[in-house]
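#random but structural
TW: two for the price of one
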Amino acid sequence: ISKKKYSTNVDERNYLTVFEYKLNDNNWIIWDYSTGYVFFTGLWKSCGNNKTDIVKLVENFPNLSNAVKRVRGGFLKIQGTWLPFDIVKNLAKNFCFNIRYCLIPIFG
């Protein structure tokens, strides 16, 4: 797990301070330790899901729409859907079975 800082204009600080955990060659779990938000797109894709299906997921769970933060523009690695840590942890129980052991350092 490494600590990084990414510039972005979607946050009042103009940057995100994150912990990164590499799952495989192309996917990372990124957690903004200042806000508690987790980069859900990376976790979703690491399980073999299509990132466009995140829209369907949010539509199926209306309570998620108020919690979603979307990052567009800026550094490509942080672009996508961000959700609070507790929500991501609960959602991961439903679709991350094949990488469950890789997630222990993040979710316990």
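TW: number two ↓
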Amino acid sequence: MSKKAQPTGAHKAHEVMLRRWITVGQPADRLYALWRDPATLPQVMRHFAEISVINDTEAEWHVEGPLKKSYRWRSRITDQQPGVVIAWESLEGADVPNEGMLQFRPAPGEWGTELTLTLRFNPPGGALGKKVTAFLDLFPKEQLSKALHRFKSLAETGEIPGLDGQPAGRHDSRKDEEA
């Protein structure tokens, strides 16, 4: 994480830091290129966010929170080293100030690449917001894990699995939002 993007003072006390990792059976350079493909991030994160890619280094995020509260921010890539790291941070005025980093490392035993996804953010509402975030799972570690699993599926099979069109004993009107 960049030092200038680190929250300071009272804001840092309310910061939430999440970290998840996964091994993907592909080389780091290929995974880096796939992550940087403008179509990838909106697909991988669609289970919790709408993302509009603005240009090569910026994207607009929209997340629906508890009680139908809507949060928006623009992010910018701050560091990119092919096959090594991609780092980003929200721009000034973000509803949820945040920064993130995706690191690529060789997996043990030539099993591909280990990806580590880290996110730091300041929940709206300070200390109370941090407690509400934890209680309501506004952005739990499971969201990061799910994003990494979706990326792994895309990288290894060329698609993200979904349930649409598969019989599961559910009503026909129900659609899987992840497809």
